[in-house]
Amino acid sequence: MESNKKELDKSQKVFITGGAGFIGFHLSKSLLNKGCHVIGLDNLNDYYEVKLKMDRLKILRNHDNYKFYKDDLSDKERLNFIFSEERPDIVVNLGAQAGVRYSIDNPDAYMQSNVIGFYNILECCRKYPVEHLVFASSSSVYGANKKVPFSTEDMVDYPVSLYAATKKSNELMAHCYSKLYKIPATGLRFFTVYGPFGRPDMAYFKFAKKIMNGEPIQVYNNGDMMRDFTFIDDIVLGVENILSNPPAEMETGARYKVYNIGNNKPESLMYFIQTLEKCLGRKAEKQFLPMQPGDVYQTYADVTELMRDFDFKPSTSIEIGLAKFVEWFKEYYGL
Question: Which residues are catalytic?
Answer without folding.
Answer: 163
